[in-house]
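User: I'm new to structure prediction. If I give you an amino acid sequence, what do you actually give back? Let's try with this one:
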Amino acid sequence: MAKRSLFSILSEQPWWVSLVVAALLFAAVYQFLPDFAAFVALPFVGVAIHVAWKQFRGRAPADAADRLAALREMSWEEFAAVISSAYRRQGYAVEASQGGAFDFTLRKNGRITLVQCRRWKVNQAGVGPVRELCEAMPAHDAADCVCISAGEFSANAREFAAGKPVTLLGGAALAELVGAVGKKSR
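Assistant: Good question. You get back a string of structure tokens that encode the predicted 3D arrangement of the chain. For your 186 residues, that looks like this:
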């Protein structure tokens, strides 16, 4: 399994954690290379500012785990309504699918996007659903597709999706998509 970057881990923490890391790095590097200490700490200050901005807008990374837990507890009908609402807020026309490899068809500016969220409750989604979704694209004239999971995607799924018009939407990115909708549905 691929390891996550330090910045992705920090982006899921409260804003002040990144600021503490920046201060500690600055102090440590200042002892040996005082001219470079600020440059080493600066990316962590940037992460702290980004996370604080998101947090004060009402989308705190700390809330992501709570929203994901709430999403996993939802029935299919509730989850489908949350996803549909989230995409409608972004200006998509959303149509439910009648079975097959995907759950929704999104239309916006003449582009068709297929969305699959059949396995939204799993902790790790594998390559099978992603492959099935990709195979459905040509038959529906879709430009791209989105595979949704409240958990993470396996390394095989990420490798398969690399270079293809597939978005793997899970974890914190899913919590960001549903935003306040996920909170209201609890």
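You can read the tokens as a compact description of the fold. Here is one thing that stands out. The chain is about 55% helix and 15% strand.
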